[in-house]
Design goal:
18 strands, five-stranded mixed beta sheet, alpha+beta
């Protein structure tokens, strides 16, 4: 979602709209400044309850609703473990219990900020930022672009496009540099340039067990990182890194809502992850990763247009169609694009059946960059099929998931004393 300026701060459009309505309501209610602040803090604290997780994410099974959001300007601990769950949005947001994602939330453990990065092949996402997964390296500063990162004498230009599929993300420096850019963007939104952070990242479901430690060490190559992004200097201490499974993380906060049998389908740019949940509980032997991301559909479309018309379809046109479901172009190109996308969506449902999906026995949940095209062109039971369109959902889940893991470790350490 696009960011717009409101009262000198950059926020998501729907958040700005809520703030404007709130301000109008408070003016009409005749609230003075102190009453307004009191109302704001009360609503913020009330909104910060978080849900219980399950055994799969290593929770101790205790209810964690005692971990509240502090006031928007507060950064003090809120329980005996000196852990805090702070709910805020650029010091301005009023959080609504039913719209918790509208708030910029922060998880801290003993003063260390948990920051997530969802390293996709198409987009790199933080909990509040999204940008293309493409980087070019140079020994000299770029002549025109200001969107670059300077690190260890090299200049990394964030560019358009996406990263080609690789089965191991530690094969080059791209993922690390894009993670630093995510850190800078997230810190910038908080008005910070220095921080101690605990990285929360993830891998496709079937890669986690084999690649977790290598990916963790890749992210921890330097504990102290001093770099520049957009000519602003950032000094970061990366205290530790936790690697979690994609797909599951996106729904980790809402497991109580997943009653009965549910199939999660996360369609990214390079891969498609599938996982079954039984009453909110996941089983490792019921999860799979397929190289069947939305880029496969894009390749089909470009090849079909080239074969049938001799025209080289611009990548941006294809990506806009896959993101929105609307071609916005003339015939015969529109029909070709739609036809190829429909075939891709049919193949997705075919693969789901290969993994024992039965719409009469379970509910289906799509997420990731490919969710929209499935929603627009797919044939499914609308009462039993659901779509998560928040592109940052997985990154937000990483932060929550990581917090719960660290919380359990802290409890275990206390019990050993």
């Amino acid at each position: 979602m696009a960011l717009v300026e409101y009262k000198g701060l950059l926020m998501e459009e729907d958040v700005v709209e809520q703030l404007r309505l709130r301000d109008e309501r408070n003016i009409s209610d005749g609230l003075d400044n102190e009453d307004y602040k009191g109302k704001q803090n009360a609503e913020t604290i009330q909104a910060a309850e978080i849900m219980q997780t399950n055994e799969y994410m290593q929770s101790d099974g205790s209810n964690v609703s005692d971990v509240k959001g502090a006031g928007c300007n507060s950064d003090k601990s809120v329980n005996k473990e000196e852990m805090d769950f702070v709910s805020k949005n650029n010091k301005e947001a009023v959080c609504d219990r039913d719209k918790e994602d509208d708030c910029m939330r922060e998880y801290k453990v003993n003063g260390v900020l948990i920051l997530a990065c969802d390293n996709g092949y198409g987009n790199t996402k933080g909990a509040h930022v999204v940008f293309r997964t493409s980087v070019d390296v140079s020994d000299t500063p770029p002549a025109f672009s200001k969107d670059y990162l300077e690190h260890k004498g090299k200049y990394y230009i964030l560019s358009e496009g996406h990263k080609n599929f690789v089965a191991d993300k530690v094969m080059d420096d791209d993922t690390y540099i894009l993670t630093l850019a995510t850190i800078a963007k997230e810190l910038k939104m908080r008005g910070l340039h220095e921080a101690k952070i605990h990285l929360a990242v993830g891998l496709p479901l079937k890669w986690v067990k084999a690649q977790r430690e290598a990916f963790r060490q890749y992210m921890l190559r330097d504990r102290f990182v001093d770099f520049k992004y957009k000519d602003e200097r950032y000094k970061v201490e990366i205290v530790d890194c936790t690697v979690m499974p994609q797909c599951y993380a996106a729904v980790a906060e809402k497991l109580k809502e997943f009653k009965g049998m549910n199939l999660l389908v996360d369609i990214g740019n390079g891969t498609m992850n599938l996982m079954y949940l039984n009453n909110g509980r996941a089983a490792e032997n019921k999860s799979w990763t397929e190289k069947f991301g939305i880029n496969q559909c894009a390749i089909r479309i470009k090849n079909a247009v080239r074969d049938k018309t001799g025209t080289e379809m611009p990548e941006d046109v294809v990506e806009n169609f896959l993101r929105t479901g609307n071609t916005g172009i003339e015939e015969p190109y529109a029909s070709i694009m739609t036809s190829e996308a429909e075939a891709y969506v049919q193949d997705i449902f075919g693969k789901l059946k290969d993994y024992e999906y039965n719409e009469k026995l379970m509910k289906l949940h799509f997420m990731g960059g490919g969710a929209k095209i499935v929603e627009v062109l797919g044939k499914y039971d609308t009462d039993r099929t659901h779509f998560i369109h928040d592109i940052c959902a997985t990154a937000k889940g990483y932060e929550y998931y990581c917090y719960m893991i660290l919380r359990k470790k802290s409890k275990q350490q206390r019990e050993k004393r």
